[in-house]
Amino acid sequence: MNVDPDLSPLREAVAAAGADGYLIDDDATDSDQRYVSGFTAPDPYQTLVTDDGVHLLVSGLEYGRATADSGADTVTRRSAYDYQELVAEHGPHGAKVRMLEAFLEDRGVETVAVPRSFPTGTADGLRDRGVGVTVESEGVVEEIRATKTDWEVDQIRQTQRANEAAMARAEELIATADIAEDGTLVRDGEPLTSEHVAEEIEVTLLRHGCSLDETIVACGADAADPHDRGSGPLEADELIVIDIFPTDKETGYFGDMTRTFARGEPGEEARRRYDVTREAFEAALEAVEPGATGADVHNVACDVIEDAGYETLRSDPHTETGFIHSTGHGVGLDIHEQPSVSPAGGELEPGHVITIEPGIYDPAVGGVRIEDLVVVTADGYENLTDYRIGLEPVAE
């Protein structure tokens, strides 16, 4: 990774906590670990941040890659502390604690601050060995990650390009399907299912160097649940929500986009809900600027939807229909991260990458959601999404 993070806020927080360093013990599925270390590995490794640099402790298996690829100032093998001999004498847990104790001692660290997710067993083991361990409870690394560098924005933009290719493939499948007598969409004599469209999305993403664990292709009443993945045959005259959130396999940065389509005639009420959602989407986009809060942007979307006569969680916290989620969220190494575009959303700053995704839901009608990914700039925002918005699917 080439993010080159500014860790000065973390070092300040560590000093304020009276600690000598900040220790992460996890694998690279922890985005803070990946961000701070500039390294990825499938097994746990340790990252120590001190005033004089970032230091990694890795297995011999990972030493070569870590030395070549990480952003760390130093990389140390476990064997430097006779790890296997310690395992033989004390077992894996006892060996790990003793190894970490020696690793910290070599760097003059007597007390460490650790993230909220730090393993309890490791923390207790270090304390038993006389190392001070205090939890950094504010999530400083997550706050640092919220403001993207130009390099990070470029990575997210590239992932979104792959996302657009996948959405185009999904839209093409729906646009070119035949309509059977029972209203089912059909391709090559077989029903066009959510599962088949999701598979084509995944294949397209793989060809663009991206992957995803799951996606949303939800039709009719399924689409009225914002996180229903969808299943079974797609139907004409029904709203179809497609939400794709891939990650780049090399850099780990996500993209995110949602479009809603209808093949045929979904009805006047469905079209009205689509138009209101689009209006709320466009109004929320225009509210994005430095100094505005996530709450401000969310309230703009709620204003449009409520003025059109639909419920929101702001107007009725118990509603199960209408606009039943927040307007957006941060995107980066996690698909959901800071900042929040919600009732509790704080101030937006240049470099924040956020989604704008209002929606209106009702099982009797279906669901509508429209989502783009934008970065806050010095004078407003830049839309990182370049994909048309329209209810009727088309084949490019």
Task: Please provide a written account of the structure.
This protein has helices at residues 8-16, 31-37, 60-69, 83-106, 120-128, 140-146, 150-176, 194-207, 268-286, 294-307; strands spanning 21-26, 45-50, 53-58, 74-77, 111-114, 132-135, 178-179, 185-187, 190-191, 210-211, 216-219, 239-244, 247-248, 257-262, 328-330, 337-341, 353-356, 359-362, 366-369, 372-377, 380-383. With 396 residues, the chain is an alpha+beta fold. Strands 4-3-2-1-5-6 form a six-stranded mixed sheet, with helices on both faces. The protein has a three-stranded antiparallel sheet with strand order 7-8-9, with helices on one face. Helix 9 packs antiparallel against helix 10. The two termini are 35 Å apart.
Write the layout of secondary structure elements.
Layout: H1 8-16, E1 21-26, H2 31-37, E2 45-50, E3 53-58, H3 60-69, E4 74-77, H4 83-106, E5 111-114, H5 120-128, E6 132-135, H6 140-146, H7 150-176, E7 178-179, E8 185-187, E9 190-191, H8 194-207, E10 210-211, E11 216-219, E12 239-244, E13 247-248, E14 257-262, H9 268-286, H10 294-307, E15 328-330, E16 337-341, E17 353-356, E18 359-362, E19 366-369, E20 372-377, E21 380-383
Parallel strand pairs: 1-5, 3-4, 5-6
Antiparallel strand pairs: 1-2, 2-3, 7-8, 8-9, 10-13, 11-12, 12-14, 15-16, 17-20, 18-19, 20-21
Helix pairs in contact: 4-5, 7-8, 9-10
Query: How many runs of DSSP E, i.e. beta strands?
Result: 21
Helix content: 25-40%
Strand percentage lies at 15-25%
Characterize the biggest β-sheet. Answer: 6 strands, mixed
Backbone shape: elongated
Q: How many helices does DSSP assign? A: 10
Overall pLDDT score: 95
**Within the largest sheet, what's the order of strands?**
4-3-2-1-5-6
How far the N terminus sits from the C terminus, by CA atoms, comes to 35 Å
Low-confidence stretches: none
Rg, nearest Å: 24 Å
Class derived from helix and strand content: alpha+beta
